[in-house]
Amino acid sequence: MLPRLDGGAAHLTRQDRPRYQQQGLLGAGGVGEVVKTLDNDIDRVVAIKRLRADMRSAGHLARFVEEIRTVGLLEHPNIVPIHDVGVDEEGQYFFVMKYVEGETLESILDKLRKGDPLYHAHYGFERRVEIFVGILEAVAYAHSKGILHRDLKPANVMIGPFGEVMVMDWGLARRIAGPSAGLEPNVAANDTSSPFATHAGAILGTPMYMSPEQARGEALDVRSDVYALTVMFHEMLGLEHYLEGKETIAAVLIGVQDQKPRAPSFVSNAHQGSAPMDLSHFVRKGLEKDPSQRYQTVDEMIDRLRRRAEGYIPIQCHVTLLKRLTLAWTHFLDRHPLIVTTLLLLMVAWAIASAVWLARG
């Protein structure tokens, strides 16, 4: 423990208490659990992650250590940083992370599905795009460091009270093209556990958000994360998972391979209007079953959405044509206000002159 000032006195005293005081369980995943903890040295709340009591084999420990080293490489504003590592009194390894206030994207989407008016007012389509770009930036950074996430889903994204976007839980992350970048064989068809949960046994990842190649247990590259990201964005726009209604892992894995998602613009929800058509086209490419037909990098996705924000909408149907023309006119107004003002005045003058001439005639 760090020494503390004893009241107003100049001398320092040491306090006989542990550095970390647990305050409650924040959540548990496939192999680990996260505990809200008070750091008595620095007087701040942190989050401590450790292995679950039933997941302390040598293999799980090796994977846990790899997670620590992986996250330690990822210093990015949208990725939760590691502050410290240690071993507790039971000999259990743990690492200390920044405690992120807020709620998961999963929780936000659930409230949007239920029609919460405050959430719909705060999380309109364009705000959802902003959040998604924050997620993309975190994953693009990880890819630049040679790391795949492999378990991207709304439950692993935190949204802070000031708009922070944090990609969490890198426990299944692996080096791109490394010996463990693929998966073990698929889970048995009679497995009845939740397809929304992270699996760390025979199947690694969350079935509902897996790419087809991840579900097949093939070697992975960045395009697998591209697919999972787009599944998440599809759900953010339409408030419905494209595999909605499939209750077994076997059914989900078949759907991942074969089911073509509906465009978010045509997914009905009583609490919101249709998603923008240009975003439906964006999503369609990211959800191609063939990796060669998807976006080839996350940077490509970011570039597409940034150009959209600047008014560039690819023409892919009559709706996107009209939107492109409208945005082009809007940008012309922004860039040439004097020309537009002059034209408007000339039109008004012509209208007045025409009215006077008609009145005299």
Structure overview:
- The protein has three domains: 4-98, Phosphorylase Kinase, domain 1; 103-309, Orthogonal Bundle (Transferase(Phosphotransferase), domain 1); 319-356.
- Helix content is 40%, strand content 16%.
- It contains eleven helices and 14 strands.
- The strands form five sheets. It has a five-stranded antiparallel β-sheet, covered by helices on one side.
- Strand 10 and strand 11 form a beta hairpin.
- Helix 4 packs antiparallel against helix 6 (222-238) and helix 6 packs antiparallel against helix 8.
- Residues 179-192 have low confidence and may be disordered.
Count of domains: 3
Widest β-sheet, arrangement of strands: 3-4-5-7-6
Q: What is the count of β-strands?
A: 14
SS summary, helix count: 11
User: How does the overall form come out from the CA principal axes?
Assistant: globular
- Parts with pLDDT < 50 across at least 5 consecutive residues: 179-192
Overall SS class: alpha+beta
Mean of the pLDDT scores? Answer: 85
**Name of the CATH architecture of the largest domain:** Orthogonal Bundle
Secondary structure topology:
Blueprint: E1 4-5, E2 12-13, E3 20-28, E4 32-39, E5 44-51, H1 58-73, E6 82-87, E7 93-98, E8 103-104, H2 105-113, H3 117-122, H4 125-144, E9 147-148, E10 157-159, E11 165-167, E12 174-175, E13 199-200, E14 204-205, H5 212-215, H6 222-238, H7 249-258, H8 277-286, H9 298-309, H10 318-335, H11 337-360
Antiparallel strand pairs: 1-2, 3-4, 4-5, 5-7, 6-7, 8-10, 9-12, 10-11, 13-14
Helix pairs in contact: 4-6, 4-9, 6-8
